[in-house]
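dumping this here before i forget
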Amino acid sequence: MRRLLPATELVAAVFLLAIALLTAGNVLLRDLFAVQIPDWFDGARMLQGIALFWGVALATYYGSHICVDALWEHLSPPRRRWLDILATLLALAFLGPLAWMVWVKVAGTGTQGTMDLRLPLWVFYAIASVGTTVAVLLALVRVALLWRGDEQALRPEPLADD
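structure:
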């Protein structure tokens, strides 16, 4: 887990950076030279999908997604743990079929490509599919850690002072 979590964070961050650079570069080129980066729109969409799936993996593991804790706040610690287990199992019930269907999408893209450069779409879908698979894996790990009562392991490690 010590290597999987930072790697997952890095993948999500790299693809967010790629979206920002692609979009900013396209705007700059369009405004200064009246040209566009080929496939910038398709590329930004595909990169956003990848970043989203890898981000879902992290949000699932850390339990840090946007939520309203109106019920959770009023429960005792043991009941909070059980509610967390139930919520993670529910997320897992949706993530498992989602991961499966995204892999089915990868297998069904055939020779489809982007508009301008004809970049194969299966590559983008496959990277996103790995993100959904990591989300399922991290959800399973989260359930196991919550079951053992090891909530401390679910907290992000503090950054080391350099």
